[in-house]
Structure formats: structure tokens, C-alpha cells
Amino acid sequence: MAASKQQNSIPALSKSISVLKAIAGGMQNYSIAELAREVGVAHTTCYRIVQTLVDADWLRPRAGGVGYELSYGLLPMVEPFLNHRVLIDTICPVVEQLVAKTGLSAKLSVRQGDDAVTVYRVESPLPMSLSGRVGVRFSLVYGSSGACLLSILPDARVDRIIEQSPDAAWKHQKPSDVRKRIISVRENNYCTDLGKFHPQVHTISSPLYDGHGKMLAALTILGLPEDMNAQSNDDHIKALLRATSRCNQLIKRDELTVELK
User: Fold this and answer.
1) Which domains does the chain possess?
2) Which residues have CB under 8 Å from 29's CB, separation 6+?
3) HSE of 203 in the Cβ direction (CA atoms, 13 Å)?
4) How many helices (H) and strands (E) does the chain have?
């Protein structure tokens, strides 16, 4: 696997990334020679990499002496993450209250292209619960969060995403299941996925909107089948909808928006 990754990588780009990460990680006051030695690249290669990054305004010479620091040309690259951070800071008290009330885990997902990406999680306080990590991305055809994010897209694009999804996406579900979840979001402002993504993963999701009615993200509560049965799910849905309503109020108050690609 490691050999395969090396064959499919671009050595010059890998070296450039290493230099950029080194400077971002604390080597701002290093000379080119010191930086080259620490990163493990030739002096001339390191010099050319740094000059290329300076030309792109990703790096700039330090005003106070030897070395380089990150520059403002990188801001457009990180702006989506900064927007997500502001969104998370705005709604996190509501999400934490939702987790405390339901005993379920919660996550916030945003759309990037044809994928959903988890940008925030609050884990369940229960000793036996589902856990996950921030940064996970998966096809929009998976789960209730994916259906929320699909629900705002034109039907033609939804059909294309479904048609181009990997075979593994249909191990526990059919395309009609995805479409039913999308219809539920459009009509009820929420949808459920009770084991279609994975038999042991049950979820309920509802979208978050900015003050102009633009969907920003999907808020999801998730748990094991025994945590989300027919009897308890009515209460879970009500709790989630109250939480998303409160989140939407806070988002509108702070005039937040996140650009979805």
C-alpha cells in the first residue's frame, strides 16, 4: 500500500508540502539551509520551493530577521474552514444540550462536492454508544445527513450522484431509499436512516439554514438500534427539530453563512 501511494504521488509537490508544513509548524526563523536540512531536501530544491511559495503569496520573508512565515495568499484556501468554525461556535451550546437530553451522539455535516464531511461532533455520555471522528467524508447517498444535503440539489444532479455512487453504497439500501429520505427532508424538514447506512447505525438528521433560507449543514443525532427504537424516535425527532430551530435562530441572529461547493 505504501509503495502504491509513492508511485501515485508527485515528489516535487510532496517536498513543497513538507516545507510548507515545517514553516507552519514552527520553523519560521530557519534559514534556507537549516530548513532544507530539517525537511531532508537539497538546498537548491528548498530554495526554489520557498521562492515559488513566496511568488504565490503563500509565504513571505519575516520582517524581523531570517526565515519565512505564512502569508495572506493562503486565506482563500482556509476561509471555508474558518466559516465552519464560526458556525460551530455559534451552535455548540445547543448541540451539547441536545446530546445531554437524548443521550445520543450528534454531528454536523457539510457538503463538499458530491460528499458529506463531518466538521463537528459531540459524543454521547452513555458508556455504550457510537463514536466517530471529525474529517470523515462519504458519498451523499449514505445516511440521513447525506439526504439532507442532497435535498437542495436539482433532481437531475441527485440522479447523477446516485448513478455514479460506488457499488458498496448499495449493500444495505436501494436508490429508492435515498430518494425517500430526500422527499422526507423536503416535506418534513427531517429524515431518518434506521440501519440503511449500516445495520448498527441509526440516525435522524435535519438541515440548518442561514437567514436567507440557504442550507448550511445537516445536524444529525445517531445511536445504536436499541437507543433509537420506534417508541423513542418520536421524542428524538421532536428534540432534534427544536434544536435545529434554535440553531437557525442563532445563525440568523449572527448573520452567518457558509459557501457550499
Assistant:
1) 2-70 (1.10.10.10), 77-254 (3.30.450.40)
2) 62, 65, 66, 67
3) 26
4) 9, 8
Query: Hey, which residues does 112 pair with through a beta bridge?
Result: 115
The pLDDT score that the predictor gives to residue 129 is 74
CA separation (Å) from 57 to 39, 51, 72, 75? 21, 10, 7, 10
- Let me know: does 139 contact 149? Beta carbons within 8 Å: no
pLDDT, averaged per 10 consecutive residues of the chain (261 residues), comes to 58 93 90 94 95 94 88 78 81 96 95 92 84 86 97 96 93 95 98 91 95 93 90 94 96 69 46
> Which has the closest alpha carbon to 49: 21, 78, 8, 75?
21
- Reduced to 3 states (helix: H, G, I; strand: E, B; else coil), residue 140 is coil
CA-CA distance, 185 to 189, in Å (whole number)? 4
Spatial separation of the C-alpha atoms in residues 252 and 56, rounded to whole Å: 36
Distances (CA, A) of 131 to 120, 153, 221, 261: 12, 29, 12, 27
pTM given for the model:
0.72
Backbone angles phi, psi at 257, to 5 degrees: -155, 155
Cα 91 to the chain's mean position, in Å? Answer: 15
Give the residue from 126, 133, 80, 135 showing the smallest Cα distance to 226.
Answer: 126
Query: Do residues 150 and 140 lie in contact, with contact meaning Cβ atoms separated by under 8 Å?
Result: yes
